[in-house]
Amino acid sequence: MDFEVLNVDDDKMVLFIHEKMMNHSEFSSSPKSFEDANETLTYISEYKAEDKKFVIFLDLNMPKLDGWDFMEELKKKGLDKYCYIFVMTSSIDPTDKEKAESYAAVIGFVEKPISVDKLNDLKKKKELLPFFS
Amino acid sequence: MTLTKEFLEVLIIEDDPGDYTLVKDYLEESFENLSYHHSFNYKNAEVLLNSDFKFDFIFLDLTLPDVSGKPLIKKVIDLAGRSPVIILTGSLNLDFCIESLKLGVSDYLFKDELNPNTLFKSINYTIQKQKQSLNIIASEKKYSDLFHLSPVAMFVYNIDTLKFLDANSAALELFEYDTEEFLSMHLQQILFSKEKDDFLDALKETSHKNKYSFKDYFLYKKKSGDEIKAEIIVKTIDFQNQKAMLVVANDITERLNHFEALSEQNKKLEEIAWEHSHEMRSPASKILGIIELLNTDSTSKDEQKFLIKEIEKTVKELDDVIRSVSKKAKQIKPKK
Fold first, then answer.
1. How confident is the model at residue B2 (pLDDT cuts 50, 70, 90)?
2. Could B298 and A114 be called an inter-chain contact, meaning their C-beta atoms sit closer than 8 Å?
3. B289 closest CB neighbour out of A24, A61, A114
């Protein structure tokens, strides 16, 4: 089983931080960055594979296709089974959390900013354990 | 018999000098302080009745040289105002007697049966009756004032025809009509067509109840077409022998407007709170992320320079959000 990390955020700086942090924490050596969620969808449908999971760090507030639309599209296209999603938020609204949990692909919430410690904790999540052991 | 000392003004309308003297003599037996005025005919009586004199009672002979009978009674009653009129007549006609009482005459005396006692009794009875009727008028006026001078809008309508029967000035002011206009209208005219049927049905259901206050408010239409929101209390009453409904309307338009202004304000505050938590948190978390990155020692010198530049940029971003929050907070002053 293989996995690929996708960071989705409309802020280039945030993407830069994520890449660096993932490298440093050895969470992923080559995470992919997307400023546009539409491109992420295209990427997933092109590179999906039965023995691969996309681990997506998804920002909810984006101008074109936002995080919610993205998850909706993913489900519609039947691509959600290839994905594990972490919802990235700068502040967690309880109703947002409830809504996000209704998506099967969502396996967690990460409050910004992401840090080495947080990423190390995520490695221990049961869905991700196989990739890091 | 005791002499009545009360000071009274009497008008005797009598063409027969003998009858005049007789009445006067009888009166003097029981009343000490009477002041007499005498008219021999209607024309002269008319002058006196039109003058500023206020008579405590009036004796009227039914056959005068110029006018007599029923026309005479009507004319005198019209001019007498609140002064009681006692008829003196030589002919015994009970039907006519009853008819004249209906016209407003206080008593009906037959000259042949006249004596000091019957006269005394009739006068005292008449005066007492007059006092009572004045009391009733005063009391009616008091209640009418309570209705008309009340600051709360009130109006009355006929339950069957829905025509307005009365309205106080507060109601006229509220609906922006003058009395004449309003009293020529009916209930439907102050309702909006979309609510009309619901409202009339609701009212119909209450018509068998003595008093009822609606929990919810209804919309009413002013003359200008503007809306009024009012809570009403209704009461079935008897108004001038008609089955009527008294409606007390409490205008809550302003109160509701205040309420709306408040919830509007609340909404804006919520927006600000959201901006606070979200829009401010977003650049703040970015700065924290950059600092975190700088702390990991995984960055080159050039990257560090770039990251510090980014911190500066993001702090400016944060500053913009703070400014927009304080600007928004200034805008939420409630509307007047």
1. low
2. no
3. A114
C-beta atoms of B288 and A116 within 8 A = no
Indicate yes or no: CB of B296 within 8 angstroms of CB of A21.
yes
B69 token code pair = 């009978």
Q: Is B277 on the interface with A (CB under 8 A)?
A: yes
> Per the domain annotation, does B336 fall within a domain?
no
For A93, counting Cβ atoms within 10 Å of its Cβ (0-12 exposed, 13-18 middle, 19+ buried), the class is: middle
CATH number (domain holding residue B84): 3.40.50.2300
Q: Does B176 touch chain A (CB under 8 A)?
A: no
Residue B52: pLDDT over 90: no
Determine the Cα angle at A28 with ends A27 and A32, to 5°: 135
Cβ-Cβ contacts under 8 Å, A14 against chain B = 286, 289
Q: What is the pLDDT of residue B60?
A: 93
Highest mean pLDDT (candidates A105-119, B215-229, B265-279, B314-328): A105-119
Supply the pLDDT for residue B255.
87
Of B194, B216, B251, the domain-final residue: B251
* CATH at B170: 3.30.450.20
Q: Do B286 and A91 touch (CB under 8 A)?
A: no
| Homologous superfamily assigned to A2-132 | Response regulator (3.40.50.2300)
pLDDT tens digits, residue range B144-177? 888 889 999 999 999 889 999 999 999 999 999 9
Is the separation of the CB atoms in B285 and B313 below 8 Å?
A: no
Shortest distance, CA B306 to any CA of chain A (angstroms): 10
Residue B294 lies inside a defined structural domain of this protein: yes
| Same-domain check for residues B292 and B320 | yes
Closest partner residue to A13 (CB to CB) among B278, B284, B310 is B310
Q: B9 pLDDT exceeds 80? A: yes
Within 278-317 of B, beta carbons closer than 8 Å to A belong to 278, 281-282, 284-286, 288-290, 292-293, 296, 298-299, 310, 314
**Model pLDDT, residue A50:** 93
Model confidence pLDDT, tens digit, residues B256-291: 888 888 888 888 888 778 767 777 888 888 899 999
Q: With an 8 Å Cβ cutoff, are B296 and A17 in contact? A: no
Look up residue B297 and give its two tokens: 């020692």
Structure ipTM: 0.83
Token readout for B285 is 């978390």
CB A84 within 8 A of CB A55: yes
B225: left (phi over 0), alpha (psi -120 to 50) or beta: left
Range of the domain at B285: 260-331
Flag residues of chain A having pLDDT under 50.
none
β partners of residue B107: B86
